[in-house]
């Protein structure tokens, strides 16, 4: 009971569809990762702010394997139901 209100303790369930993920591959060490759409949205907004954005632009990201800005979008997106 919290503040006189009986709380029904149930497991939290996710709401809405799972986030989309984009497949990125490093051109240097061939590390492959799935990147959450929130990270892509942030980088797209930042590129637009800096004036680097154009039609079809997908940001280049930092690779966790070789620690260089060499992750490129492979053109593969996760299915709507998630990976």
The count of β-strands is 3
Fraction of residues in H or I helices:
10-25%
Secondary-structure content class: alpha+beta
> What is the 3D form?
elongated
Terminal Cα separation, in Å?
Answer: 38 Å
Instruction: Name the strands of the widest sheet in spatial order.
Output: 2-1-3
Identify the quaternary structure here: single chain
Strand content: 15-25%
Whole-number mean pLDDT: 86
**Which consecutive residue ranges, at least 5 long each, have pLDDT under 50?**
none
Largest sheet: 3 strands, antiparallel
User: Which radius of gyration do the C-alpha atoms yield?
Assistant: 18 Å
Number of helices: 1
N to C succession of SSEs = EEHE
How would you characterize the overall build of this protein?
7% of the residues are buried. 17% of the residues lie in helices and 22% in strands. It has one helix and three strands. With 83 residues, it is of the alpha+beta class. It has one helix at residues 37-50; strands at 21-26, 32-36, 71-77. The chain has a three-stranded antiparallel beta sheet with strand order 2-1-3. The longest helix has 14 residues, at 37-50.
């Amino acid at each position: 009971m919290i503040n006189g209100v009986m709380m029904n303790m149930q497991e939290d369930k996710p709401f809405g569809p799972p986030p989309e993920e984009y497949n990125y591959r490093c051109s240097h060490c061939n590390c492959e990762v799935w990147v959450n759409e929130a990270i892509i949205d942030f980088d797209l907004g930042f590129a637009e702010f800096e004036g680097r954005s154009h039609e079809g632009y997908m940001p280049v990201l930092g690779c966790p394997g070789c620690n260089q800005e060499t992750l490129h979008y492979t053109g593969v997106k996760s299915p709507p139901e998630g990976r």
